Amino acid sequence: MNDTVVPELKTWKEVGRARFHESAELHVLGQATYTDDIRELAGTLHAALGLSARPHARIAAIDLEPVRASRGVVAVLTAGDIPGTNDCGPIIHDDPILADGLVQYVGQPIFIVVADSHDNARRAARLAQVTYEDLPAVMTPQEARAARSWVLPPMRLARGDAEQAFAAAPHVVKGELYVGGQEQFYLEGQIAYAVPGEDRGMHVYCSTQHPSEMQHVVAHALGLHSHHVTVECRRMGGGFGGKESQSALWASAAAIAAARLRRPVKLRADRDDDMLVTGKRHCFHYLYEVGYDESGRIVAAKVDMVSRAGFSADLSGPVATRAVCHFDNTYYLSDVEIRAACGKTNTQSNTAFRGFGGPQGAIAIEYVIDEIARNLGRDPLDIRRLNFYGRSERNVTPYGQEIVDNVIHELVAELEGSSEYRARRATIEAFNRGSPVLKKGLALTPVKFGIAFNVTHLNQAGALVHVYVDGSILVNHGGTEMGQGINTKVMQVVAHELGVDLGRVRASATNTSKVANTSATAASTGADLNGKAAQDAARTIRERLAAFAAQQYGGAASEVRFAADTVFVNGLALPFGELVAKAYLARVQLWSDGFYATPGLHWDPKTMTGHPFSYYAYGAAVSEVVVDTLTGEWKLLRADALYDAGRSLNPAIDIGQVEGAFIQGMGWLTTEELWWNASGKLMTHAPSTYKIPGVSDCPEDFRVRLFENANVEDSIHRSKAVGEPPLLLPFSVFFAIRDAISAVGGHKVNPPLNAPATCEEILKAIAAVNAAVEAAASQDA
Fold first, then answer.
1. DSSP-derived 3-state class of residue 615
2. pTM to 2 decimals?
3. Which residues pair with 441 in a beta bridge?
4. Which one, of 94, 728, 767, 706, lies nearest residue 361 by Cα?
């Protein structure tokens, strides 16, 4: 059929439209069901965890009788009560569900209390009398480096001859940097509700980004097969990576108790317990050395990164790998040596967090470029642009992947103009000359972020699409909804493929009995993978309907069109629901599965080379701050962000994701400080002691736009991922603060600023700049 004959075929579309979140109305009305909102079955019990009070110790003795005697307690379970494997590690099996004779961080679970109420379980958990034999503890990545304490073998990526390049470099800058970790601080805490069923079956409702992994961990802990266990997640109140692997502890503990007592058990973590038990974003310590020429072009680079992995491996290996692969950010590094190690420390086992090592890798090179610019008396933007990857040359990453989609030059140029960067730079310089106390700073930072799981086999997804007799459509896929809008986007993809209004489509809860062997909703791949799988399923149904329509009304099946809730066939226009009803009577299959595996990916972990990413997402941001040099307080005055979402599936959701990622990343780099006391206890374990950004921290002038650009890869409708890459945009805030501090010394001194740039860190950096200026003046005198 000629599309020009029917206007609807030219103008109608469902993807690319700014649709509101599919659960938005339920969120606003308080009717969205989270795991804790599920109506409890009769006989439901509540669990809590008994936690270690030492960072590293043997348990010499433990008296649990006061716990058992506490009000409402039904059972107390220890490692010996686990019927299967006492392990919840996602890769290396070094992460016990319950400590068995050895504790390795303050907050490590030792036993499970099951009681008649949540409050009684928590109160009882604190009554255990434990005698410890303390062992030496390693707490920081610096200590881990000195002790060569690793959870995994260190990794190294090298290209060219860095030593020879350094020998020929006209200038060299070297130093160290510390970038702290970050608590995911999801609004909904960790929670699992385990309901035993017939024939040893277990149904676990869990707030998790990875239902299939929870299924495997629970099955192993119970000594069962995966088919005995069903894990279901309708939605999460945030995840940010903290519910990728670390929901396993809570799911398995609830299931162990439920299996033992043959009663439903809910385990809901209090915020303090959640923060004490679970891992965070890895903090990193860097030693760097970079050679550059007179113009500021980098000719040699070396970096040695050590992360605080915690007591077990968890996902530290893949996080370090991504850090290594993002050290380059948007810059070509000809001769480079990158080392990364995962420090074994007696702290919570750190885990995934939005960005997954990418931000920690990229911030190091940005810090160095900032220093090069100051050393040469140049604008940092000019040094960044000079080192950008090229199009036809200087376009291969240190790990060997050719960059074929580079738009960073055009994107940065567009943002430089729209943000009035040059004019504002001059205005700020004039302001600082006349302001001895308040200093302003400005920075523009770019982003290049690789999209795909580090591990190739994880880049797959499945989906089911059902078309019912009344023309309504249900889609189930392996992704999990944590507020990011994956269900909305997948629904739009299905609606577009079948040519129906979005109101016909509904997404059901993620369930391991529907789509099996799913990957985590992580690595910014949720919409890419599950959207493609759902599209595949919907396309199969559409083709069946097209063949039926052609059979009934004439014409070729290839000419049948679906749009605007209508089927156009051989000059006729039929309502979609009418054709579906007729197809059902003709016994046409109206449901289908779909599958997708990202093509072209490969990675050699031994040589750290390959093609690990399907494509790159790009972006840039400009931030302007003002710093009070007497108190260290600061304010973000304006932020401009331009992000490459490809052909956005939903511009409203994508812009919201960029805004949220920006503020979350800003919190990581400025206010969110994790602090352990001398006894190894995390003291920032509640909102009262851990400062996430509030509304007042957001800039009054916040300008976020999407860059016009179609993905060169065959992603879902040529869109690009939006989950993680924008978290790197607030690098601009950190470096604007550093720029303001630099103004104290007339931009002659590189401020030694670590992250998070709290008021205390800012004052330390200001003091260091003033001391350097005074020392230089004394020498001149």
1. strand
2. 0.97
3. 625
4. 728
